[in-house]
Amino acid sequence: MGTWATAFTIFKGFVACSMLYMPKNFINGGWGFSPIMMILSLFLTLYCAKLLLDTRAKLGGKVSFSEMGELTWGKPGRLFVDVTLVGSQVSFCTSYVYFITKSCQ
Hints:
By secondary structure, this protein is mainly alpha-helical. Helices cover about 90% and strands about 0% of the residues.
């Protein structure tokens, strides 16, 4: 996948999914608490993305997430990364299906 396709996929996965639930989350969390948590989440996500990019640069630049996990933590690291990636994708799909079914009711 190219740079633009990767950026669009990340945008779609994180931002689009969040926008579907944002109004309800603000009602449930409160108008004071929700923006603060959103900003903290932004900084935590940026920090973790920077760590991933730094690790990828140190490992040669052409490694996948699974390969990064294996090079840094061995076979358990690769398995952990693969399981969390699958879990992430399943949760995105589940949240979309849930949102669509709630919207159709």
